[in-house]
Specification:
282 residues, alpha/beta, eight-stranded mixed sheet, 11 helices, 16% strand
């Protein structure tokens, strides 16, 4: 792809995605509705690139070139026609629909509009755009520069050509794309979140301590981190929200969120971001 790319949303995910695009040689625009988020986002990306240089993982000239290719915009109207726009804004249906409807005006004639949503229906978002056949899910994982996978999610209306080009693009930025169909939670959260939820049930029922549950899953299943520590990293509010989506949209009891998970969220124990979840953080 020769055209510029835009990332909308300069939060945790948008920053990582824009960094990866700029490092891979694309001109990458980054936009956020909150100007301060753009500033912090760009500073954060520069800091990550500098860290790469300090650690010897990145040549100084490559970091400088990536910084050069990264452009922040204060308004979408500053965008040049983009071959791809990736939306990574707040996980709310109305926010995403509004962002996508605005963003689609800045695509080239065959440009692709993608969303990084974790839980909202790709099919439903596609239906709100003018070209649902050129709409696709590009589900990146946190931290984006380190995580290999892009779950490429095909909505009901997504064309084969869009999927093919999205896969090709994801490979060009050094990621490993794997395709799946649009269904609540896609594959990643459909499998991961019930496992985390079950670990919380184990804790609630006194089957074992948090440390023991995580230790068993790490050493016995060869997982790099236990499910409760992972939930703290993701955010307990995010885990609860995704379980609620699975429960609502798949309609089965087995997806009911564990009451202890809900209680922690109600108490403001959200995991690492609030310094207290299943574990305490300094
Ligand atoms: P975040 O809260 O860190 O960032 C979201 C950003 O979107 C904020 O800076 C906010 O100001 C901005 N925003 C809100 N409304 C906007 C608008 N109308 N226009 C432009 N920007 C707007 O959230 P995040 O963790 O980066 O998540 C972003 C998306 O990525 C969500 O859809 C989330 O489900 C998905 N996701 C998150 C993770 C994760 O681990 N954090 C992993 C995979 C996917």
């Amino acid at each position: 792809m020769k055209e510029p790319i835009a990332v909308i949303g300069a939060g945790t995910m948008g920053r990582g995605i824009a960094q990866v695009f700029a490092q891979a040689g694309y001109q990458a625009f980054i936009y956020d509705a909150i100007p301060a988020a753009i500033e912090t986002g760009v500073k954060d990306i520069h800091r990550m690139l500098d860290k790469g240089v300090e650690k010897g993982k990145l040549k100084p000239e490559d970091a400088a070139a990536a910084k050069e290719r990264l452009r922040s915009v204060r308004s979408l109207s500053e965008l040049k026609p983009c071959g791809l726009i990736v939306e990574a804004a707040t996980e709310k249906l109305d926010v995403k629909i509004d962002v996508l409807r605005q963003a689609q005006k800045y695509l080239t004639a065959d440009g692709i509009l993608a969303t990084n949503t974790s839980s909202i229906s790709i099919t439903q978002l596609a239906a709100a755009t003018d070209h649902p056949e050129r709409f696709v899910g590009m589900h990146f994982f946190n931290p984006v520069p380190l995580m290999q996978l892009v779950e490429v999610v095909r909505g009901l209306q997504t064309s084969d050509e869009t999927v093919r080009r999205t896969i090709e693009f994801a490979k060009s930025v050094g990621k490993t794309p794997i395709e799946c169909n649009d269904h609540p939670g896609f594959v990643s959260n459909r499998v991961l979140m019930p496992m985390i939820n079950e670990a919380v049930f184990c804790l609630q029922e006194g089957v074992a301590t948090a440390e023991a549950i995580d230790g068993i899953m790490k050493l016995g299943m060869n997982h790099p981190m236990g499910p409760l520590a992972l939930a703290d990293l993701i955010g307990l509010d995010v885990c609860l929200f995704i379980m609620e989506v699975l429960h609502r949209d798949l309609g089965e009891d087995r997806y009911r969120p564990c009451p202890l998970l809900r209680k922690y969220v109600q108490a403001g124990r959200l995991g690492r971001k609030s310094k207290h979840g299943f574990y305490k953080y300094e």
